[in-house]
Design a protein that fits this description.
The chain has helices at 25-41, 46-57, 69-76, 99-108, 120-125, 140-149, 169-178, 198-201, 204-217, and strands at residues 4-13, 16-20, 112-119, 131-139, 164-167, 187-197, 224-231. It is of the alpha+beta class. It folds into two domains: 4-22 and 59-128 and 202-231, no CATH class; 131-198, no CATH class.
Length: 232
């Protein structure tokens, strides 16, 4: 079963935490490009245009509304298959949480879990240069990419089937050198490992979400926070 995040942004205004709406510019750009592509194909765009209008009007979860388990691991230790140390273990809802955010949490009831919050300061001061080792099975084509870029562009956690053969990196190197043994119709896969910094793995959360938090906070990084929880 999948796991999703429910995230809200609060800003301290006149001493009181207040939920704020915002616009996720990368998401707006993505939707605009998607609509353009769909129109070019001659298909309907009603659904996508409604989504675009909602985003442009501002949403509560504008800082982040995706499903990224490694990010969840770093934010709260949720779905932590790599056993990473999170920024902070779940703290529960803030004692001074806004009424609106509390109501959203209550609405989900027992289906919500790992409630917590992080300030802009906590996000900024976390060491995003730390690395994590990843691994995956790649085909001959993706193994070429791996050798060139020291990481694959796509991979599988596991691959199987009657014509699948798992080979060592040495054997895959031999296949690349001597040519693909087409005569037996097998598909060859090899296991590769690579290392990436957290900042690169979490993508736009690092390049857009955190800078947006600091922009909202201004001179006081303690004045803006994300309040969030998860459901499976």
């Amino acid at each position: 079963m999948g796991c999703d995040i429910h995230l809200h942004v609060e800003k301290k205004i006149d001493g009181k935490w207040t939920p704020i709406l915002g616009v996720n510019e990368p998401e707006v750009e993505y939707l605009e490009n998607t609509i353009a592509d769909i129109k070019e194909r001659g298909d309907k765009v009603d659904y996508w245009e409604r989504r675009l209008e909602e985003e442009r009007n501002g949403t509560a979860n504008f800082i982040y509304d995706g499903r990224h388990y490694l990010l969840f691991s770093l934010l709260a230790g949720v779905r932590n298959e790599y056993d990473l140390k999170p920024i902070c273990e779940p703290k529960g809802l803030p004692v001074d949480v806004s009424d609106e955010v509390k109501a959203n949490s209550d609405e989900l009831g027992i289906d919500g879990h790992s409630h917590t919050w992080l300030t802009a300061r906590e996000l900024v001061e976390f060491d995003w240069s730390q690395t994590v080792e990843q691994e995956g099975w790649v085909s001959e084509k993706e193994y070429k990419v791996f050798k060139e870029k020291v990481r694959p562009e796509s991979w599988s956690g596991g691959v199987g089937g009657g014509r699948v053969r798992h080979v060592s990196n040495t054997e895959m190197n031999r296949i690349l050198k001597n040519g693909y043994p087409w005569e037996n119709d097998d598909s060859f896969y090899t296991l590769v490992k690579w290392t990436l910094p957290y900042s690169e793995i979490v993508g736009s959360f690092y390049t857009w979400s955190i800078p947006k938090m600091t922009e909202l906070a201004g001179d006081d990084l303690e004045s803006v926070r994300i309040v969030f929880w998860f459901d499976n």
